[in-house]
Amino acid sequence: KAGVTQTPRYLIKTRGQQVTLSCSPISGHRSVSWYQQTPGQGLQFLFEYFSETQRNKGNFPGRFSGRQFSNSRSEMNVSTLELGDSALYLCASSPTGATGNTIYFGEGSWLTVV
Amino acid sequence: GESVGLHLPTLSVQEGDNSIINCAYSNSASDYFIWYKQESGKGPQFIIDIRSNMDKRQGQRVTVLLNKTVKHLSLQIAATQPGDSAVYFCAENPPNSGGYQKVTFGTGTKLQVIP
For residue A77, what are the CA distances in angstroms to A31, A83, B3, B43? Predict the structure, then answer.
């Protein structure tokens, strides 16, 4: 069974641009969540989607958004990029997203903002 | 490979010894706790979990202990191997998550296994 797949793996963007990251969950998993990982703030929860609906959201500005498609694939978007948005963005999937579901992470997308 | 988290506490352990990684969690009402392992250049990997109605859970070579009185979690790794070298994160699912995942991660501990 294929794991969580994230694309692109690496990207460099300029301040003020926007970026879209993609995530394909494990087959059969309907919950997708996103995390940001930085040296200063560690791993922080961004949002979680299930059946195309956002169920939980972390403490990030509105520049960070996401969506989920009917096939459970998900995208996240960051608009008006800032230098501080440079991070590893991790996508994770689980069967239903209920507490107690094992969460499986992808390898992440490394975003550098210059 | 790449790594995130340049200023982590480090635990150095001799190969074959047992490792104990400690974690203080923040929310006394959290009901679910998880340990993850993150190797350089990879996403976090689930190791073991425990619910708040338990105080101990064992897996293969790993044991998680939960002390709710002092909001403390520990991960014990038996017979530590070089492949155990990684950053270890404890995580909790807080009560305001509506029963869904909104995992809060600790800062991480780097485990260095000395051959």
Answer: 18, 15, 23, 20
Phi-psi region of A97 (alpha: psi -120 to 50; beta: other; left: phi over 0): left
Q: Are B29 and B94 in contact (CB under 8 A)?
A: yes
- Judged by CB atoms closer than 8 Å, whether chains meet at B4 and A88 is answered as yes
What is the DSSP secondary structure assignment for residue A103, as one 8-state letter?
P
A25 CB within 8 Å of a chain B CB: no
What residues in A contact B102, CB-CB < 8 Å? 45, 48, 56, 58
Residues of B in contact with A43 (CB under 8 A): 44, 89, 91, 105, 108
> Are the beta carbons of A28 and A93 closer than 8 angstroms?
no
Identify residue B64 by its one-letter amino acid code.
V
Residues in a beta bridge with A104: A93
Closest by CA to B75, choosing from B112, B24, B3, B29, is B24
Q: One digit per residue, pLDDT tens: chain B, 115 residues?
A: 444 545 689 999 999 999 999 999 988 888 899 999 999 989 999 999 999 999 999 999 999 999 999 999 999 999 999 999 999 999 998 877 777 778 899 989 999 999 9
Helix (H, G, I), strand (E, B) or coil at A107: coil
Q: Long-range contacts of range A64-71, CB-CB < 8 Å, 24 or more positions apart?
A: A66/A34, A68/A32
Q: Which of A4, A91, A19, A89 is nearest to B2 (CA)?
A: A89
